[in-house]
Amino acid sequence: MKAVIYRIFRLFIGLIFYAVGIVMTINANLGLAPWDVFHQGLSKTMNISMGQASIGVGLMLIISNSFLGERLGWGTICNMFFIGFFMDILMFNHLIPIFDNWILQLMMLLLGMFLIGIASIFYIGASLGAGPRDGLMIALTKKTGKSVRFIRNSIELSVLSLGYILGGFIGVGTLITALAIGYIVQFTFKLFHFEVNKIQHRFIDDDIKFLGRMISKKEDHSEVE
């Protein structure tokens, strides 16, 4: 039970940090990351918050990933809902400052990406499944046989283009984020000696099978008595 509580605690710390990192990159006001360009475009088009747009996109991705054969974890579901939920709390209550000085804006953008890297260590390290967007990348890589880099770049270029058409904000920060986020996340992984390849995720179907076995054992025990 202690192990389960620890994993859930670690997951939510990661999701909170991830939301803070995203809002920092948004409030830097230098241009949004590709997925956030898409979320902002949707929020303007549908008159909803960016957090709600993030949740809606995450839900659609989870459904798509399921059809593509990707297994879901409880962390996948929590990632889909709570990052958008925490983003709205931060943005509606103005908990992350907005600066006019471009040096401070650039520092906030870089710090936000660094925090996203730390958040990834927490939530991936909880071993409860990848996020919906990472799940799509993994599923398409398996299905197409293309490289992760090609699939990720294709996905982000697609959502960036669609988000821009819908009215999302593109700027120099978009280019910085697209080029630097992978390197910054990799740097944080090395800094904290986090080896993502060694993570063994527990998926929802694992828990369903486990509960099924427990119920069967109880029924067998009752019949013996």
UniProtKB/TrEMBL annotation:
<feature type="transmembrane region" description="Helical">
    <location>
        <begin position="12"/>
        <end position="30"/>
    </location>
</feature>
<protein>
    <recommendedName>
        <fullName>YitT family protein</fullName>
    </recommendedName>
</protein>
<dbReference type="InterPro" id="IPR038750">
    <property type="entry name" value="YczE/YyaS-like"/>
</dbReference>
<feature type="transmembrane region" description="Helical">
    <location>
        <begin position="102"/>
        <end position="124"/>
    </location>
</feature>
<keyword id="KW-0472">Membrane</keyword>
<feature type="transmembrane region" description="Helical">
    <location>
        <begin position="50"/>
        <end position="69"/>
    </location>
</feature>
<keyword id="KW-0812">Transmembrane</keyword>
<dbReference type="Pfam" id="PF19700">
    <property type="entry name" value="DUF6198"/>
</dbReference>
<feature type="transmembrane region" description="Helical">
    <location>
        <begin position="159"/>
        <end position="185"/>
    </location>
</feature>
<feature type="transmembrane region" description="Helical">
    <location>
        <begin position="76"/>
        <end position="96"/>
    </location>
</feature>
<keyword id="KW-1133">Transmembrane helix</keyword>
